[in-house]
């Protein structure tokens, strides 16, 4: 605790920039605007005074089926801290730092968080185990565990294989029952979501088996997480009278609300998904409130607008408060690797400062502005990895999008800034992605495509980027 206090009183400019949700380019943008210097000081003072979230102020929602009192902030256990520091990823295979996970979970629960979402597929298969250790130290009735039937591997899609997966979740989580159990990734599957759904859940009879487990008390709430093919979403809701879905998890944020299809034609606008669930009185669990971090690391002009309107809160705060302000939302998931992320999100929901109708109109204008940037709709979830040919797909997309958002993507060679931006782009790419893992090594096999929740045509985008990079190297733009 003494260390936390010391850290809170010694906040560097770098930490504050991370709190704002801005990159180095954004800081340069603020420095160029005299009017934003005062905003920086005011925001810094606010951060220092509010860095410790209040206890006993968490906003809760009531599950109408089970009457569970669920914290509006849910802890996503997808990107847990690893030993030795560094950012957890498929490339960083360091073991999970269990002491750090325990500390984060303890702090979250001490501030009212009681919903923890994991999966057998997270953290290279180690998330459930680490989550179970952290939560087992607390009374069972003090938390709700959500995990998933993540039977993506054909080896686990048989009835027996899926049952083994379910029972292993109970073992790893050290529990006798699952509070919230999901059919994982409904709608995924290389353009044919219904066929994928049937192979994973109906032909093997596992969906009916899960319904039986709910009757037996092994599952308290049964639902599904939706990605991709809206036909599967519509079909499952048409079966609501049969299956009685207790909750559904969807991607929801102020950009996806009306513009998901503009970002990616295969996506579904969150407004439609939410309204369909609300009229059936099915509670909504929100994933991707930050759209894979894109609503915290927004383009510099957008960040400036958000900070001018509300200089006291982080850029990411807008997205969290937007999602939490919808009345049918049960909880909003956030994958919080670091304490600063946890504290920032707690401030948004302890208690919730709801966005007004005027705020929603403002955020719709922001969304329209962001659509104009036309970045690749990658959430950096890394479901596409590993690539059999070693291409670091998400790192390439992240670098491209970052330059696009910051307005530093090299364009016409005649422009004054071309040489500077060209050099920064190519050097930055080599720094972030080793040569042997860059886009020119994509052979277009398409193995990555079925695994992308955003249904990105990954090989096509990689080939476009490769062509662009080659033009930069040849000075042919």
In words, what does this structure look like?
This protein has 477 residues and is an alpha/beta fold. The chain folds into 2 domains: 60-371, NADP-dependent oxidoreductase domain (TIM Barrel, Alpha-Beta Barrel); 393-474, no CATH class. It has helices spanning 2-9, 13-20, 24-31, 34-50, 98-110, 127-136, 159-173, 193-202, 206-216, 230-238, 240-243, 256-263, 270-278, 300-309, 315-324, 339-349, 357-371, 393-406, 418-432, 458-474, and strands at 60-62, 69-71, 73-76, 115-117, 144-149, 178-186, 219-226, 247-251, 284-287, 329-335. The strands form 2 sheets. Strands 3-4-5-6-7-8-9-10 form an 8-stranded parallel barrel, surrounded by 7 helices. The protein has a two-stranded antiparallel ribbon with strand order 1-2. The longest helix has 17 residues, at 34-50. The termini are far apart.
Q: What's the arrangement of secondary structure elements?
A:
Layout: H1 2-9, H2 13-20, H3 24-31, H4 34-50, E1 60-62, E2 69-71, E3 73-76, H5 98-110, E4 115-117, H6 127-136, E5 144-149, H7 159-173, E6 178-186, H8 193-202, H9 206-216, E7 219-226, H10 230-238, H11 240-243, E8 247-251, H12 256-263, H13 270-278, E9 284-287, H14 300-309, H15 315-324, E10 329-335, H16 339-349, H17 357-371, H18 393-406, H19 418-432, H20 458-474
Parallel strand pairs: 3-4, 3-10, 4-5, 5-6, 6-7, 7-8, 8-9, 9-10
Antiparallel strand pairs: 1-2
State the separation between the terminal residues, measured CA to CA: 55 Å
- C-alpha geometry: globular
How many strands appear in the DSSP assignment? Answer: 10
- Into how many domains do the coordinates divide? 2
Lateral strand order in the biggest sheet: 3-4-5-6-7-8-9-10
The percent of residues in helical segments reads 40-55%
CATH topology of the largest domain: TIM Barrel
Poorly predicted runs:
1-50
State the name of the first-level CATH class of the largest domain: Alpha Beta
Q: Tell me the series of helices and strands, N- to C-terminal.
A: HHHHEEEHEHEHEHHEHHEHHEHHEHHHHH
